[in-house]
Amino acid sequence: MMVDLGPFSDEKFDPKKWINSACKTRHPQDSLDKHMVDLEMKLQMVSEEIAASLEEQSAAALLRVPRTTRDVLRLRDDAVSLRNSVAGILDKLKKAEGSSAESIAALAKVDTVKQRMEAAYETLQDAAGLTQLSATVEDVFASGDLPRAAETLANMRHCLSAVGEVAEFANIRKQLEVLEDRLDTMVQPRLTDALSNRKVDVAQDLRGILIRIGRFKSLELHYTKVHLKPIKQLWDDFDSKHRASKLANEKIEIERLSNGNELQSSSPTVSFSSWLPSFYDELLLYLEQEWKWCMLAFPDDYKTLVPKLLMETMAAVGSTFISRINLATGEVVPETKALGKGILDISSGDLPKGSKIQTKHLEALIELHNMTGIFGRNIQHLFSESDLRVLMDTLKAVYFPYESFKQRYGQMERAILSSEIAGVDLRGAVTRGVGAQGIELSETVRRMEESIPQVIVLLEAAVERCISFTGGSEADELILALDDIMLQYISTLQDTLKSLRTVCGVDHKDLGLDKKEGAQYSRKLDLISNEEEWSIVQGALQILTVADCLTSRSSVFEASLRATLARLSTSVSVSVFGSSLDQNQLHVTSEDGNGEPSLGGRAALDVAAVRLLDVPEKARKLFNLLDQSKDPRFHALPLASQRVAAFAEMVNELVYDVLISKVRQRLSDVSRLPIWSAVEEQSAFPLPTFSAYPQSYVTSVGEYLLTLPQQLEPLAEGISNSDSNNDEAQFFATEWMFKVAEGATALYMEQLRGVQYITDRGAQQLSVDIEYLSNVLSALSMPIPPVLATFQTCLGTPRDELKDLLKSDNGNQLDLPTANLVCKIRRVNLDQ
User: Which of 258-272, 353-367, 375-389, 721-735 has the highest mean pLDDT?
Assistant: First the structure.
């Protein structure tokens, strides 16, 4: 059995565990004693071998110690010798450094002198060469070798730059400018021929000549001049077709008159909106062909040459483009078409008074802009390889004809919305004869309620027009216009609401009537039948639906407007830094890994981003608005929101006045009823001294209050369009029921406080009246006010027991001020 000595070197060696483990490895037939004896013997033999080996190695190590000592001493001597040698070398280097620094300084001066001498030599050579070139340049031009002439002029300019501003060469400098213009003039006809006939090699050579003399701008101008002419012909084609169709129609009209009014069909007049897509298609095809040809002829310049051609084209046709757009917008409306005017003329006030911008005008403008937008996207795709700055300048040129319209967008949208709001049927209520007020009220409320979704649709259409036409760049002006229009609309609703007060019979307070006139007014209301009265109540309750509809619709529209602003803040990604907006500060939404705009990012360049680059102040204002819209507390229509809340308050006030008017009418003279001071009649028989039934004034009020829930139920059902709103509708009906009941109770208690004197008979009758009203309130699940309960208790108590009642209560159940007032009314002296 081999003994593994590895476990003995472990720091956590456990002898007991090792012995137990060794015992487990014994053969099952061997006895434990025999196994332990063998294990002990093997361990003893191993230990003896280890001791012998250790002794042998120790002896060998002792023999090597003297030799190692001698080696260490020799190495120490060698290190001391090396240190002395290095110190000597360092001393020599320090001495050499001082002398070499002086030598290097001297060499540097010599080198500077050498460079100056070489520069002077080269300058002299350039001066000599300049003189020689100046003398031979005419011969070069006479030879007609344009490349050689260009090379000569380039060398002359190089020599002039070398000699600097030397008076002796001033004439040569002027001569060089004249010669460069002369060479440019010689190149132009050949370049025209090469560009017109698609001569790639010739065009490249001529380009090289112009580049050699620093006249690349001349290449741009000449390229544009050559190709601008056929594009202008495309643009002028509209005028020729328009005139041709006009002459044809005039000829047909003359023939019709000469043939005795016989029917003849006239050819349709060519409209700008139908012609513009074909112009864009032909222009795009022309630019695509030029792009492909320039890639071969001018591989280093095609990315700027073709966009430059388009920019110059739009600049050349810009004024007529604007005029045609203006007239095209006027052709969609017969009035402006007859006058030959457009949307710009109307907004400028050039048309007769009463001429208004209509939705059709702006829709026609947006339709033309959409055509241009399609062309702009095609241009983006065609010029996708161009620099971002070039691409942005090109798109600005494409959209330039619409800039004057966009600057007036807020004014135009405000005029359109104002006209459309004025066209909504919101005429005020007109007072009719007795029996027709309810019909008038219902019709007016119906018109008010139907107008709300109509107006919201008009506002939503305005938002869509703003996005379609300006890409959202005029969102700030749109917000102001929408706010103003909402104020205009709500003001009309408020005026209509005021007219309803007269129809509902609750405007005597607004008219400033005194008590006598108010009583006369109340007597007029007595002529109204119960059916008419309830129809007025039902109509007034419907006004609550108008307020609820206005509040909810305006809230939803404002939330939609905030969502639109949020989308704009992410889609148009323009950053404004400092006081200027530079094209380099344009960030598109899609970028590659290097932070450069990728093709997908360039597709995000929309009309708003392109336009805002030229109007940094407007961009700053717009993006301040977009940042504010991210705040949950932001109101897109702040003034309109406040006016909506004010309108809801006016509606609640009117509805409450209508619901409480019958109560106010029935309770108006309660404090002055003669029964309160009536003297008891003498009779030979024991008869009750008061009526066991409540009087008609209080029963009328009670019946009205008990019937009111039935009037509120249809309105609550109208609000509850789904099961989820049932609780809200029930709360709404209960709230108004409590509000009217509380108002009726307050009016009644105010009348009770106005009673000056009451007899025992009157007190008993009034107690019965109060008890009836209390039962009505209980039936409506309303708590009985302590003041009213005190009135009933004190009035129902016999006069001679009233003082004892107050002493025994001590304010536990009775309202003491009210109890003292009742005592005063019943002439009970509490001081005795």
Answer: 375-389
Q: Which residues contact 256 (CB under 8 A, 6 or more apart)?
A: 262, 263, 264
Q: Quote the pTM value.
A: 0.70
Helices then strands, each counted (H, E), the chain: 28, 0
User: What tens digit of pLDDT does each residue of 243-277 get?
Assistant: 666 565 555 556 656 665 554 444 556 788 989 99
Burial pattern 126-161, b for ≥16 Cβ within 10 A else e, equals: bbebbeebbeebeebbeeeebeebbebbbbbbebbe
Tokens of 580: 């200027």
**Contact in structure between 747 and 664 (CB atoms under 8 Å):** yes
Give tens-digit pLDDT for 283-314.
Answer: 999 999 999 998 898 888 888 999 999 999 99
Cα 681 from Cα 297, distance rounded (Å): 127
SS3 574: strand
Place of tokens 């219902």: 442
Residue 213 has pLDDT above 80, yes or no: no
What are residue 586's phi and psi, to 5 degrees?
A: -85, 125
> What is the number of other CB atoms lying within 10 angstroms of the CB of residue 740?
22
Identify the burial level of 414 via C-beta atoms within 10 angstroms of its C-beta, where 0-12 means exposed, 13-18 middle and 19 or more buried: buried
The token duo for 306 is: 């073709």
Written as one letter, the residue type at 636 is A
Angle between helix axes 216-258 and 170-196 (nearest 10 degrees) is 40
Kindly report the backbone phi and psi dihedral angles of residue 606, in degrees, each rounded to the nearest multiple of 5, phi listed first.
-110, 180
What are the φ and ψ backbone dihedral angles of 303, each rounded to 5 degrees?
-70, -20
DSSP 8-state symbol, 757: -
C-alpha to C-alpha distance for 263 and 167, rounded to whole angstroms: 86
For the four alpha carbons of 86, 87, 88 and 94, in that order, the dihedral sign comes to: positive
